[in-house]
Amino acid sequence: MTPNKLLWLCLWLLSASNALAAGISVRDDTGATVSLAQPAQRIVTLSPHLAETVFAAGAGGQIVGTVDYSNYPEAARRIPRVGGYSRFDLEAVVALKPDLIIAWEGGNAPAHLQKLRRLGLPVYLSQISRLEDIAGEIERIGVLAGTRQSADTAARTFRQRLADLQARYAGRPVVRTFYEVWHQPLKTIGGQQFISSVIRLCGGENVFGTLTATAPDVTVEAVLAANPEAIIASGMGEARPEWLDDWQARPGLLAAQRKNLFFIPPDLIQRHTPRLLDGAERLCQHLETARSRRPAGSRQ
To answer: Which stretches are annotated as coiled coil (predicted)?
Structure first.
């Protein structure tokens, strides 16, 4: 080995040693710093959407435990369960000896997360509020799991797909939209909920966008007064909910008059994962259908 090559090798080893000593550190969605001595090899995810995101970051094989309804990709179905996201089993989590827990601020009980932290377990807390945030989360998980190359590729793909949708639907005529989470009680989304950003991406306007609650209850009378041009429903599974067609009994409702009653599977639109763009594409297509059904010369 030449002296130059030997010097280069020594410098590289010194750099690698310093990097290892420094460990790994990222900030989660709450601004808290999460530090690990080395990439996580035993990960527990405390929400279905977080399991899906870890798979997207290339670290699905490192998940040793997750919660009920973690069903995508197919391999996620075979991961041991530690309960549900709102009431997970603390003892089951600890028994898995995780070196990283990825939790959901909007769904996991803060007291339970505090107990895990007091046991010395690193907890990364996720809370996505914008479409743009998903790519960054994939990248941060890739850093923590040591799968940075796969994660960075997935994040770039997500950003490119998002940019393409933004360019395609920028400037499209506005469609006033009611997003129906559930029928009884009648629930929708507020303006700060991330599905509102999907509606805006597609050139829509959330008719309840001034509400600050994440998933507020509304009345039928309020929907009729808002008179949306399109209604988007999610329901509970892959099948179109029967109650969506109940709006046909309201002939004064513009969305009913024009048969703009649309369905998107909840896993595609209500999970903060890369598949959210699949749901966004469907929502954008539905709003394009609503535009196509306008009378000639009508702006709504």
So the answer is: none
Q: How far is CA 80 from CA 77, 95, 107, 165, 271, in A?
A: 8, 12, 20, 37, 21
Query: Residue 171 above 70 pLDDT?
Result: yes
| Residue 216 in this model has a pLDDT that exceeds 50 | yes
pLDDT digits (tens, 9 = 90+) for 15-51: 333 333 348 999 999 999 999 999 999 999 999 999 9
CA distance 282 to 269: 9
pTM to 2 decimals? 0.86
CATH of 173-292, one of 2.40.320.10, 3.40.50.1820, 3.30.1330.60, 3.40.50.1980: 3.40.50.1980
Q: What is the mean pLDDT of the chain?
A: 90
All structural domains of the chain with their residue ranges:
19-155, 173-292
Residue 299's pLDDT is: 73
Residue pair 206/196 in contact by the 8 Å Cβ criterion: yes
The reply to whether 19-155 and 173-292 are identical in fold is: yes
